Amino acid sequence: MVFRSLCVLEARSRIGGRVYTDRSSLSVPVDLGASIITGVEADLDTERRPDPSSLVCAQLGLELTVLNSDCPLYDIVTGQKVPADLDETLEVEYNSLLDDMVLIVAQKRGACKENVA
User: pLDDT, tens digit, for every residue of 30-76?
Assistant: First the structure.
């Protein structure tokens, strides 16, 4: 799939359509509107953890709709589908970053508890 030209029409005075980051209501930015959450379920074979957003949705009782299990990556320059081996490598790296963040958050929580005590 190669795009030759693109025209973006917006119904509002801002870019983003249904997707919007609210930066003024809370002390942190909050994304509103449409969202795609990948990795909703844990995978015991690969030890992949579920995306934290899916856990928040479950806790809030929000309904998630499965779009399609096949969600390939596309190169934004060429418009071509990224080869499956590279896609898989990137997914492994992404999951590794999520795992690293879990450790960093746990370490920071421990440091905060020590500072309070």
Answer: 877 766 777 677 777 777 777 777 788 888 888 877 776 667 788 88
Kindly tell me the number of DSSP H helices and DSSP E strands found in the chain.
2, 2
State if pTM tops 0.85.
no
90, two tokens: 């990137």
Tokens of 51: 């995306």
Burial of 21 (0-12, 13-18, 19+ CB in 10 A): exposed
Q: Hey, what are 96's tokens?
A: 């590794």
Distance of alpha carbon 90 from the chain centroid: 14
Question: Residue 4: how many CB atoms within 10 A of its CB?
Answer: 5
SS3 content of the chain, % helix, strand, coil (to 5): 35, 10, 55
Structure tokens at 11: 């119904």
DSSP 76: T
